[in-house]
Amino acid sequence: MQRSYYLILIIIWLSGLSAYAQISNFQFKRFSTRDGLTSPIVLTITKDKQGFLWFGTINGLNRFDGYEFRTFRNDPTDSTSISDNWIKCLFVSRNGNIWIGTHNGGLNYYDPKSEEFISHKRKIDGSLGLPFVDISAVCEDDEGTLWIGTNGDGVYWKESSGKIFHRFSDNSSNPSGINDNTIRCLFIDSQGNLFAGTSKGLCLSQKNDKRTGKCVQIIPGLNTSPASRKSPDVSSIYETGDGRIFIGTGDGTIYKYNEKSKNVEMLFNLGDQFQETRDNWISCIHEDPYKRLWIGTLNNGLRIFDSHGIILYDSRNKSTDPAGPGSKNIISICGDDAGGIWIGTREGVAFFDHRQKQFLNVLYEAENHNGISKGSVQAINEDKDGNIWIGTHGGGLNYLPYGSETFQHYVHDSNNPFSISSDYIL
Fold it and tell me: Are 410 and 396 a contacting pair, CB within 8 Å?
């Protein structure tokens, strides 16, 4: 996407150490209903294969193209509209379709080619489809099998080419099955194993056991140590680029899963002590391009940790900062292709571009012959070597070599047949 800029932000690459030194200067751009969101409460965010960002709210689905929001809401007179406006979860499949879990309308998927929604409804005899249950999680394994978690109805799955949804649920007669029907989150790791976070702990179903419903209880209750601790909810699961799997719980504890021992190691708790409130409920975990771990809590803001577990940023200390996330209620986090971080909150969306603290503001200055040329900026691009090219309206082409702060200018010269043909770069 190309945009016109009157104020140019030029990338200056800094070392990792410098980036850490400026971590307290994180600044977020905020989006609200004034910008086109259908609701300030954003429950889920994802990025599709075309580069669009999708925001699920309690009052409709929003698509952002970098300029404006497009909204999708239920229309009772249109069978191809989304079935419900309360969007709980989003997932982009391998073929580019977007699966949408809703609160009251069951499961939908959006076909980008036809721009239509298809709702998976159960027939009267119950033979096909899904009931209109509260969908809490959707994911897909490497075979294309779709996995759906519900709030009270267990787990469903469907083969990529099939139409029948199979179900396995909490069953006291099957001790090796899932431990609860309230599914907080579902996750397929890089090995093809299925993790299910429930209101009673964490279940692991090995790759070859997934369809049988056989599970191993990894965190079966969390109510023995310390004695005061009772909350077993597993609320978030995330795998980093190097294969580490982190598990977040309702009381603010972060665990790391050990593949060899098939067990978990407690890393830290976000509170001063284990709490029964939902203040530190870990709603989302995300790793950014600098290997920093972003942890969002339901009622206690955003924390950022480095790869050694050292806290780098705590939004609780910046509750009045106009450049902060703008909310203590962090619900979802998603990264974009450029490394930007999008955060869904109860007060809208916050956007953080990790390059901001590596930018300089550059304006045209007539006396600065090494600066950018005069004219509004029509296009900015970066080549494979990291050099920046900037086209202007009337000022020709500007070239900024990687790591430099000095511009080179290419303008039309009627006496030079090898010069650029025009100073108006579109």
Answer: yes
